[in-house]
Amino acid sequence: MMKRFLLRLLFYVCVYVLLHIVVVCAVGPLVTFYRPESGGHLFSRTKEIPNYKNPDILFLGSSHAYRGFDTRVFDKAGIVSFNLGSSSQTPIQTEVLLKKYLDEIQPKSIVFDVFPIVFQLDGIESTADLISCDHIDDNICKLAFKSGNVKVINTLIYGLYQEYVRDIRNTLNERKIIDGDQYVPGGYVERMTDSTYLDDGSNDSR
């Protein structure tokens, strides 16, 4: 009897998991935080990584980093830099990014922007941002499950579907201007003022 019960339980669990995955993939935006195009432009930033080998400076941190360190200023001074900041990035997400990309980028130095409030964050926003905008590997999967948040895990399921079934990493070209935020090659995001923000059509909703 016990064996039969356990087999039935296992069967129902497998069916539930399968149905859950199917439903998440079908109605992803309704039950996930998935957003590959965001004001933080992490999607464009991660795709640019192969273009920045051995920079003088690698910037890491939250939006204070990618909005605060203008790579163009350093370029004018003859300093090659790349900004790998992300929205609400906590040290946990920073560690994941370094494990993934440090050997590939091989910067001469690292500037890690530390903002006290990030130590109070639960990391859910930043984890969802990584799932939505970066190549999903085992470290990001572990990060999602460690969050203990069902919607983050749903985001992971939908993100895997988008990346490995719909090939979003190769088919999506992120808009350079989103909600008045313009992406600058090298990882900086510039907030455009009303006087400089010209909608050239690249900000149209899809």
What does this structure look like?
The structure is a single chain. The protein has helices spanning 2-26, 28-31, 42-48, 63-68, 71-76, 91-105, 124-133, 138-147, 150-164, 168-171; strands at 57-60, 81-83, 109-112, 177-178, 181-184, 188-191. It is mainly alpha-helical and 206 residues long. The chain has one domain (32-190). The strands form 2 sheets. Strands 2-1-3 form a 3-stranded parallel beta sheet. α3 (42-48) crosses α7 and α7 packs parallel to α9 (150-164). The radius of gyration is 19 Å and the shape is elongated. The model is unreliable at 194-206 (pLDDT under 50).
Task: Identify the notable features of this structure and list them briefly.
mainly alpha, three-stranded parallel beta sheet, three-stranded antiparallel beta sheet, 10 helices, 206 residues
* SS-derived structural category: mainly alpha
- The averaged pLDDT comes out at 91
Quick one: overall form? elongated
- What is the string of SSEs from the N terminus onward? HHHEHHEHEHHHHEEE
> How many structural domains in the coordinates?
1
Number of helices: 10
Helix content: 40-55%
Q: What strand line-up does the widest sheet have? A: 2-1-3
Number of strands: 6
Distance between the termini: 55 Å
Any idea what the radius of gyration is?
A: 19 Å
* pLDDT < 50 stretches: 194-206
Biggest beta-sheet profile: 3 strands, parallel
* Share in β-strands: 5-15%
